[in-house]
Amino acid sequence: MQRLHPVSAKLSRRQAWVFLAASLVLAVLVGVGGLVQLAPVAQLDRVIFDTLQAQTAPGQAARDTVVVDIDEVSLAAVGQWPWPRYRIAALVERIAAGQPAAIALDILLPEADRTSLSEIRRTFKRDFDVDISFGGAPPRPAG
What we know:
Elements: H1 13-35, H2 39-56, H3 72-78, H4 85-96, H5 117-128
């Protein structure tokens, strides 16, 4: 059996140090580029991710999973994001009508809904000292 020798055994001491230094510099550059989202590093990351996903994905997509995507057509029909909470609730209710096993939302809502009727009422009272009321609005859900 032939004994394997590391590549470093074939390099001179100086070549090994140059190789090590270049490798470390490259690793630091890629790491920093990934942290600050440099375009070439981000593009390389996407290409690698897409390639790995394509190679490891099962042959056929699951037929019992449906992803509801808010696309440009939806935005043109309903209005730009962020949508008011009532519109998101209506979408969830419409999806729930299909009796799915689960509904998952990947949405970050860090601020209060400025389009809620109670918020509009408070804003008008604060800014204009006007009391307003709304008729025909659905009751506020409990909880």
